[in-house]
Amino acid sequence: MKNIIIASTSTLHGSDYLEYILDELKLFFNQANEILFIPYARPGGISYDDYTKKAKDAFSRINKSVTGIHTFENPVIAIEKAQAIFVGGGNTFVLLNQLYKHGLMTVLRDAINNGTPYLGTSAGSNICGLTIKTTNDMPIVYPPNFNALGLVPFNINPHYLDPDTTSKHMGETRETRIQEFHNFNTNPVIGLREGSWLLVKDHSIVLKGSLSARVFEYQKKPYEVEPETELNALK
Amino acid sequence: MKNIIIASTSTLHGSDYLEYILDELKLFFNQANEILFIPYARPGGISYDDYTKKAKDAFSRINKSVTGIHTFENPVIAIEKAQAIFVGGGNTFVLLNQLYKHGLMTVLRDAINNGTPYLGTSAGSNICGLTIKTTNDMPIVYPPNFNALGLVPFNINPHYLDPDTTSKHMGETRETRIQEFHNFNTNPVIGLREGSWLLVKDHSIVLKGSLSARVFEYQKKPYEVEPETELNALK
């Protein structure tokens, strides 16, 4: 019985950390009082303690306590015993590398597949897909491989950005990058715009928030799906 | 005797492929009639043949012939015998992976260190640095490692983009990404804006074009350097 939120971002422009999704989280985490936070992705190089404090402050608004995984002697046991898990954003390569380094991929996957509620934002969402090959992040460390948790049968592209038709910059658009991905990989990719999330309940995967998402399937033209669309048939 | 051009981009907005730098290339390649083109980075998934034709068309304007490395039976010998080499842009992970796969990193490094003129644009510039850890590209394939040719004692960030202060998008800025790089790596990074290039002549590394470049040194505040600045003291 999976119970997962895969969010494009933690923060919307002009609002506080997790603010836009707090009502949803209150419902989502209604069975949990304590949330295990995995701060490994370290956005902007923030320390584990400072990052955990940020999560703690946000969750205090819905009366949940938060503990950083780095404060446990044994992170494997911390995951096994967690009432709920939150993996925050930052750098996806750093996050994945740390999860492999601490030997946490299997225990994390098992816990989530067995029903421990999981919230991922940004990098924490990338790792829910099949691989991290559609992250937007810079490859600042070299992880042992690019395989992710595979909790959904596709890849995530968080912070999905539509092409800026007025730009004079010649770097690739997000859409071009994902199309290049499909020259070497066949699995679908969901481009999740900021403010969108996927709600996974067992075998159901539903798009939430007010925006459409962009779906990229191998050898198909990309297309939009509206909120409340069931995405579990993608493969 | 190194003789290298490390260009941020192949193409400026509103002009043809390589057009902005053709006069410089005419001078740079004045000892070469034939240029060996390495199309491995495949921008947008273009075929090797089509990509080579694009390079051939541009270089025909300065009376140089271009041959794709994929048309040679033995790419090692093609590099050893090349009068000059051009590695075009596209996906840096794909490019690096192909170079390792074909066993070309050492022969390419040796040829360039021995004086074969080398032009890199975008991905072809990323591989001139110490590692590809400051590429902007999506990690669509997993290369055997992130080590690059190390022709200059720093990393390149091509298509460098200043933060857009009007944006409501919450993805990391380029500057934030490079600062995150420095949490795990100590070597300098040069952010090369589109239209800029580095001209490497033996031990000299000079910024060219009309724009300044942004230099990121470990534990220092980022700063700008003006065209004609000598960058060989960075390390």
Number of helices of chain A: 7
Beta-sheet strand percentage of chain A? 15-25%
Please bin the fraction of helical residues of chain A: 10-25%
Query: What is the rounded distance between the termini of chain A?
Result: 20 Å
Order of helices and strands of chain A: EHEHEHEHHEHEHEEEEE
CATH architecture of chain A: 3-Layer(aba) Sandwich
Shape of chain A: globular
The biggest beta sheet of chain A reads:
7 strands, mixed
| Radius of gyration of chain A from CA coordinates | 17 Å
Q: Quick one: which chains have the greatest interface?
A: A-B, 45 and 45 residues
Structural class of chain A: alpha/beta
**CATH fold node name of chain A:** Rossmann fold
In the residues of chain A, how many domains can be counted? 1
Instruction: Give me the side-by-side strand order of the main sheet of chain A.
Output: 3-2-4-5-1-8-9
How would you describe the oligomerization state of the chains in this entry?
homodimer
CATH superfamily of chain A: Class I glutamine amidotransferase (GATase) domain
Number of strands of chain A: 11
CATH class of chain A: Alpha Beta
Low-confidence stretches of chain A: none
Mean pLDDT of chain A: 96
EC number (chains A, B): 3.4.13.21
Pfam family, one (chains A, B): Peptidase_S51
GO cellular component, one term (chains A, B): cytoplasm
Family (chains A, B): Belongs to the peptidase S51 family.
Verbal overview:
Chains A, B: This is dipeptidase E. Chains A, B: Its EC number is 3.4.13.21. Chains A, B: Belongs to the peptidase S51 family. Chains A, B: It comes from Yeosuana aromativorans. With 235 residues, chain A is α/β, with parallel strands linked by helices. Chain A has one domain: 3-Layer(aba) Sandwich (Rossmann fold), CATH 3.40.50. In chain A, 25% of the residues lie in helices and 19% in strands. The first copy, chain A, has helices at 22-28, 48-60, 75-81, 92-101, 105-113, 123-126, 174-181, and strands at 3-7, 34-38, 65-68, 85-87, 118-121, 155-157, 189-191, 197-201, 204-208, 213-216, 223-225. The two termini of chain A are 20 Å apart. The A-B interface holds A 9-14, 42-45, 90-91, 93-94, 132-142, 145-146, 159, 161, 168-172, 176-185, 194 and B 9-14, 42-45, 90-91, 93-94, 132-142, 145-146, 159, 161, 168-172, 176-185, 194.
